[in-house]
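Regression test attached.
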Amino acid sequence: DADVTQTPRNRITKTGKRIMLECSQTKGHDRMYWYRQDPGLGLQLIYYSFDVKDINKGEISDGYSVSRQAQAKFSLSLESAIPNQTALYFCATSEGRRGPQETQYFGPGTRLLVL
Amino acid sequence: AQSVTQLGSHVSVSEGALVLLRCNYSSSVPPYLFWYVQYPNQGLQLLLKYTSAATLVKGINGFEAEFKKSETSFHLTKPSAHMSDAAEYFCAATHSGTYKYIFGTGTRLKVLA
């Protein structure tokens, strides 16, 4: 079984709808991250969480919110989806005890299309 | 501010040829550097990372990268390309005091038969 899972894998929604993307991990890691990937732009950090009580904005948090329900679960919400939020979204985790050089482990991604 | 630049958004090589993917960084403090690979319809997985222990870093699948401080580079190489190497490759950086990665824009590698 995969260590970092994301649901759904694909989602089509309409402008103005609220949607939630979910991420679960079985690695026992403290830190979790949400990124979006756009062609030609690489990955940009939306939000990150160092533990259940510590949530921080990344580079592009406007229009997004997150919830860290437990150590293993980190959800990303689009309160009112707009077409330029069409992208590939990745969840990632890291142990949180090895310093900045620690590896991040990525889920398979959620492909979101906002019409 | 830290930044990562990957030269060449698309690179094509023949099977068996040398693979060279370029990454340059900008950082006022010593960086930690990573190469990740993304196969189609999959998430990113770590190929290798530089953590200041050794300037030549060997990774999985025959890839290696050399940290060159004077050139602010961390280029990824593989002596002989295989069809299975076709993927998108991302260079990323962090530094002491942050857990946030800064990613390059990626290089898509195509391997020609």
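Expected vs. actual: identical. Chain A touches chain B through 25 residues (CB under 8 Å).
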